[in-house]
Amino acid sequence: MEVDRNALIQGMGGEEAVAKMDHEQRADALEDFMSGELDAAILARKAPKRYPTVAELQEKIETRDHRRGIGKLFRPIPSRIGSDEDMSGVMVKRLTPMPQRPSLEDFFEHRFAPAGHLLQSAALAKKNAASEEVILACLLHDIGNSLIKSDHGYWGAQLIEPYVSEKVTFAVRYHQALRFFADTSVNYEYPKRYYELFGIDYVPPPYIQAAHDYARNHKWYMEARLVTLNDYYAFDPNVELSIDEFRDIIGRHFKQPKEGLGYDQTPVSHMWRAMINPDSPL
Ligand SMILES: [Fe+2]
Ligand SMILES: [Fe+2]
Fold it and tell me: pTM score, two decimals?
């Protein structure tokens, strides 16, 4: 433990008092002081983290220049989205041009990068010997956040629906609702991060409760649950992962349209185009 000399002398009664002490008294006073400091440090460590309430988060809305549900691609520093760091004066970057017929990997490289959370979640699922479809679902589970964060599970599922199996779409769609509900049978707990994001007293709205109940009784429940289990937040900046590690799984389970994502005339093509060009004024 580091000792602040001034605090130590004050804690022992001040310069004058210390000067009058003999060696023994000083040693005792030092011990008292150190043990007090140690207790304070332990108490501070144990003090429960103070999470905001729903009402406090509501009050913060008018202190921001953006709404919290805005997509990552529309903010200057994508990784800091959701935090309340002051970003006034931080400018957006020019995006790298996309190929004419973009593939999923191109989106990872040019629009979702560094995509640390997605790559780490997929890598964790792989390490845990999940099925290839679950690994793919983990890789894609939060891509909706690039476009819009509010209800991201539904946006993400819609984005991929024409290109993957129903099971993968299901897993991505329902991971959002399942995140709010513990499942002790697989050691899944309500995320601490949600106390911070949604408020300590937050109660998920009825449609999220209903989505959970529906998914809980579905034959693909475990696929969606595994996405929440491998939803990896402890991002290690020293681990370099690349989309290359998942090219084979993408190849087997994601039907890339030959015209390229965004140009294949599906009901979701415009959503991919909005990510190709988020700078378009209309
Ligand atoms: Fe998510
Ligand atoms: Fe996630």
Answer: 0.82
